[in-house]
Specification:
By secondary structure, the protein is α+β, with helices and mostly antiparallel strands. The protein is 24% helix and 30% strand. The protein has one domain: Peptide deformylase (Peptide Deformylase, Alpha-Beta Complex). A hairpin with a 5-residue loop joins strand 6 and strand 7 (116-122). Pfam families: Pep_deformylase.
């Protein structure tokens, strides 16, 4: 288990929907540990497998004193309230913008041993669970920004030292603000 390099905006793996996990084996447990080690080393609130170049539906989180991982996650909003707050991403380092998310969610999935898991979160934890699940669908939080903010964000990204000049794409999330398919 080691800290792995994080894939940056422009890498096609970040725009590809991840596959469902079907084998709850040692390889999955090693992936969860690599995600955890990498997330913690970077001070992130969450990290999804595609950010390490692995196309599987797995993420780790450590947010508001709650930590763990989810395999094959889904989520639904627990009410119709939204929150507008600053959001960032380890795949878009050093840049943050306000993004609208559901305020409270329930996320369900499995742990690395195939046991069911349910997490209820509000505010920052809810934001994290939604953000990481979006990664598994090839969606970045940039896709959720309003047009004006997204245009300003893309300008900042193009000026960032780490940006390699990849052609940016915007994707529609398959999840509405309240969970489920759009």
């Amino acid at each position: 288990m080691t800290v792995q390099p994080i894939r940056l905006f422009g890498d096609p793996v970040l725009r590809t929907a991840a596959a469902e996990v079907v084998d709850f084996d040692r390889e999955l447990r090693n992936l969860v540990q690599d995600l955890w080690d990498t997330m913690e080393s970077q001070g992130g609130a969450g990290l999804a497998a595609p950010q390490l170049g692995v196309g599987l539906r797995v993420f780790t989180y450590h947010c508001e004193g709650v930590e763990g991982h989810l395999v094959n996650p889904t989520w639904v909003a627990t009410d119709d309230q939204t929150q507008l707050g600053e959001e960032g991403c380890l795949s878009i380092p050093g840049l943050y913008w306000d993004c609208v998310r559901a305020r409270s969610v329930v996320a369900r999935g499995w742990n690395m041993h195939g046991e069911p898991v349910q997490i209820e979160g509000s505010d920052l934890l809810a934001r994290c669970l939604q953000h990481e699940t979006d990664h598994l669908d090839g969606v970045l939080f940039l896709d959720r920004l309003d047009a004006e903010t997204r245009k300003a964000a893309m300008k900042q990204i193009r000026q960032a030292d780490w940006f390699d000049g990849a052609v940016p794409t915007i994707k529609q999330s398959p999840h509405s603000l309240f969970g489920g398919a759009v």
